[in-house]
Every structure is written in C-alpha cells, then in structure tokens.
Amino acid sequence: MAILEVEHLHKNFERTEVLKDISFSLEKGQVLSIIGSSGSGKTTLLRCLNFLERPDKGVIRVNGETLFDAENPVTTQEAEIRRKRLHFGLVFQSFNLFPQYTALGNVMLAKELLAKAQPDYKARKKEIHAEIEREAKSLLDQMGLSDRMNNYPHQLSGGQCQRVAIARALALKPVILCFDEPTSALDPELTGEVLKVIRGLADQETTMIIVTHEMAFARDVSSHVIFMDDGHILEQGTPERVFEHPEEERTKQFLSRFTRG
C-alpha cells in the first residue's frame, strides 16, 4: 500500500489556479523528485501537503488515513490540521531557523513544545528534557555538526544552517520528509554538503519528496520523478524514463537547458 496518496488536488489563489488536478502516490522508502520551471506549482504542492496552504479540492492520505478531504469538514478543522501536519517534515530553502536559539535549541524546540502539552510533563520534566536533548544531539551528530551545537545561526555557514534545518525536520520523526529547493540559497561547495546529507538519508530508505533544480542529483537519487508545468503534472515516471526518454515536448525543452554544452 502507498504511504502517500494524493488525489485530484486543486489550489487557487484568488482567480489564479496554481494546482490543477494533481494526483500521485509514493511508496515507503521511495524518493520523489519534483522538477519544473519556477512558477509551475512545485512549492505550492509541498505547502499543501504540509497544510501550510489549504487545498480547495482533493484528498491527501498517509498510510491509509485520510488527512485531508475537501468534501469532509472534519478533516479541515484547524485542530485536526495541526495534528496531521506532524506526518510531514519540511525543510525550507532559506533555513527558517530561529535566530535566538542555538543549533541544538532549534532542533529541540518543536519537540519540547509538544511535550509540554502532555499530562505528565510537570512530573517528568527533567527526564523528558534530557531525552529530547539526547535525540537532538544525535541528529546534529548525524549531520556532522557535533562541534557546532551551541552556535547560533549567524555563526554558521549556509550549509550548516540547512543541515540544522534537516535535523530539526527529522526530530519529530515524520512519515515523509519534504525539501523545498534545499540548495537554492547555497554556493556550489555548500550545495555539495547538503546533497551529501540527503543522499545519506536516501541510502537509509527515508521516504522523501524533494523539489529541486539539481537535475543530476534528482536523476541519481530519485525512485520517481514528476515534471510540473503550469500547475499540472505533465509527466512522471522513473528517472530513466523522464530524463532519458521524455514524451512531452515541454519536458524536453525544460531538460535541454541542463544538457547544453
């Protein structure tokens, strides 16, 4: 059974239709790369999956559970949305770290806020805090940042900030980890650092959705590729199928920009 099912998703901003009848599925452990020109709807699709934007039509299921159904008012209630958002971890293109917290504090923050809502938090505060800190340190160590845990974002490079953001997204153990152009704000050297981390997560069979302009990386790491154009999924399939044998003329035109010379 698919871990993620998206059916007939639509999203409008006023009179502009940004997502037009989007449907796809994703299996556990797969890496889905979403490619396409700027303005094609890629980021809006990710934001709808994370409920940072609310779709106008369609259904989103994770592990068979209906997280969102535009026709079912219960699934669109804010309390339900907040709970179901935890199924997805999102890494933004510009890090979005809290400047007043260290790298460790950024990774711990969301889990600590959730812990405070638990009925036994006051009685077990020290124990819970110690466990959250232990897990956060382990994630930062996994990101190669064991010597940077007490640094603030302004003391870190862009690549280091993005690795903190990845650790933060992993801290809540999401079902699906999503990346919104995670290297677009980085220079080539720092881009390599971040892509190496994502490649390692793929090797661990982390289920991921990656919006990217790194075509070579998408071809090498992905299980499945979607090409979006003007709010539609114009083409999808294995990396070999989409990159080596695209069927749509628009896909061929887009990919030709990355193969010239």
TrEMBL record:
InterPro entries: AAA+_ATPase (IPR003593), ABC_ATPase_HisP-typ (IPR030679), ABC_transporter-like_ATP-bd (IPR003439), ABC_transporter-like_CS (IPR017871), MetN_ABC_transporter-like (IPR050086), P-loop_NTPase (IPR027417). It is a peripheral membrane protein. Pfam families: ABC_tran. It comes from the Bacteria. Keywords: ATP-binding, Cell membrane, Membrane, Nucleotide-binding, Transport. GO terms for cellular component: plasma membrane. PROSITE patterns: ABC_TRANSPORTER_1, ABC_TRANSPORTER_2. Residues 4-255 form the ABC transporter domain. It is found in: Cell membrane. GO terms for molecular function: ABC-type amino acid transporter activity; ATP binding; ATP hydrolysis activity. PANTHER family: AMINO ACID IMPORT ATP-BINDING PROTEIN (PTHR43166), L-CYSTINE IMPORT ATP-BINDING PROTEIN TCYN (PTHR43166:SF35). This is Amino acid ABC transporter ATP-binding protein.
